[in-house]
Design a protein that fits this description.
Helix 3 (about 80-90) runs antiparallel to helix 4. By secondary structure, the chain is of the alpha/beta class. The chain has a five-stranded mixed beta sheet, with helices on one face. The relative contact order is 0.10. It is about 55% helix and about 10% strand. Helix 6 (about 135-145) links the parallel strand 1 and strand 2. It has seven helices and five strands; from the N terminus they run H-H-H-H-H-E-H-E-E-H-E-E. It has two domains: about 40-120, no CATH class; about 125-215, Alpha-Beta Plaits (2-Layer Sandwich), CATH 3.30.70.2390. Residues about 35-40 have low confidence and may be disordered. It has helices at about 10-60, 65-75, 80-90, 95-105, 105-120, 135-145, 175-190, and strands at about 125-130, 150-155, 170, 195-200, 210-215. It is elongated, with a radius of gyration of 30 Å.
């Protein structure tokens, strides 16, 4: 008996048989793309809503209010947005938030947090032992700002603490030693000849925190 030749399907037959599969893949792809676009747009809307809600805190002159706003954004899952705002403003008030994100985020978020931290100047708190030293301290705070740091105001410690015999630039974390040395050098170059950096081990402070304790008057 003659052997039957194997049947051959035409390209049209093959295409027809594959059409349901192709359509299924296309529908799935379009659906996934639509879902991605929708989620992205919804995220943008949510971020804009949060920005509007926290705007008074973000533009506040009080560092603790700005820090609360940044922390709120991070808690809502908008760590990247919080880091962008901190970096753009180079806001020392966001340092603790950036440190927390760096410690808990994924690899990409940690890298963004590290970059943000590199843009944030150290915060410098100035202390005087007598109100008569305020004008001079304010003048020096502007020079400290010009050196790339963020002065956080002048506090009169009279009745609260004792001013040192020599001006001290106190730092609390090893990473801040270079910044403290720079602040001390700035003070020395502008008439505070006894200013010296000093690490304080007994107290804890956030990274990027430096304190200037001016010598008591007449010392």
């Amino acid at each position: 008996m003659p052997e039957h030749a194997p049947s051959r399907h035409s390209p049209i037959d093959i295409l027809a048989s594959l059409t349901p599969l192709i359509l299924g893949v296309c529908v799935t792809g379009v659906g996934a793309l639509f879902t991605h676009v929708y989620n992205h747009r919804q995220l943008q809307i949510n971020q804009l809503t949060a920005l509007d809600k926290f705007r008074p805190l973000l533009v506040s002159d009080r560092p603790e209010e700005r820090e609360f706003a940044y922390a709120s954004f991070a808690a809502l899952g908008y760590q990247d947005l919080a880091l962008k705002m901190i970096a753009v403003r180079q806001d020392g008030a966001g340092r603790a938030v950036a440190q927390e994100i760096k410690a808990t985020g994924d690899a990409a978020t940690r890298a963004a947090a590290t970059q943000a931290l590199n843009t944030i100047p150290a915060q410098v708190y100035l202390h005087i032992g007598d109100e008569s030293g305020r004008a001079r301290a304010l003048e020096l705070s502007q020079l400290i700002r010009a050196a790339g740091f963020q002065p956080m105001g002048v506090e009169n410690i009279a009745g609260k603490a004792i001013a040192p015999a020599r001006t001290q630039v106190r730092y609390f974390n090893d990473a801040d030693k270079e910044a403290a040395d720079t602040v001390a050098g700035t003070l020395r170059s502008h008439g505070v000849g006894d200013a010296a950096a000093q690490k304080v081990n007994l107290l804890k402070a956030r990274p990027g925190s430096i304190e200037v304790w001016f010598a008591k008057p007449g010392a």
